[in-house]
Predict the structure.
Amino acid sequence: MTTESSRNPARDTVRADARRNRERLLVAARAVFAEHGIDAPMATVARRAGVGVATLYRHFPTREALVRGAFVRQMETCGRALRDALAAEDPWTGLTHLVETVCALQREERGFPAAFLDAFPESREEHARSREQAERDLTVLVRRAQASGALRPDFHPSDLVVALVAHCGLVAALPDDPRASRRLVAYLLQCFRATPPDEPLPPPTTLTLRGFPATPESGARAPRRT
């Protein structure tokens, strides 16, 4: 029997439909997580994708699996940025690249910040190992940057987590203001330096005190511009 004759057109159609449903679910998940956070009801994702809840659970049995699938590319980008930072000849350049890459993803994928900080619970052994390795690698990168004299000696690896949480809050409050994000990242990196450089900051935002945003949970309107 030839390979061509052994193919089952009906089975191929089912597989193609399954692939399309999976992709629709991932696109819908990213949109729903951006609007409502990663704790949004799974049924909301299914409705956005135009499929039944049973179809969603066939592809993604748990919320964690859905979040991981929705942001796998972004997580891989973060992992690659950390590896590149460790391999960089200049550790400060590597650290800067890492911070800018993660913050750019937080800015561009509105559901990603929460996924980055909280999507992989420590109870899952494989993810716990990955996170522990990332923390060790980050500590190595920090020590190298300090040894080079570029990074301030009192910097602690946890300071980077604090910075990412702060940036996460900014992009949640000002999702349509990329200039605020870029300026904050530049401020943070200059503060991290042992000797702040004289290079100018990116252009400031147009936000004013009159448009000061409330917390995202308050349901406040978008800040006013002048």
Observations:
- DSSP finds eleven helices and no strands in the chain.
- The two ends are 73 Å apart (CA to CA).
- The longest helix spans residues 9-36.
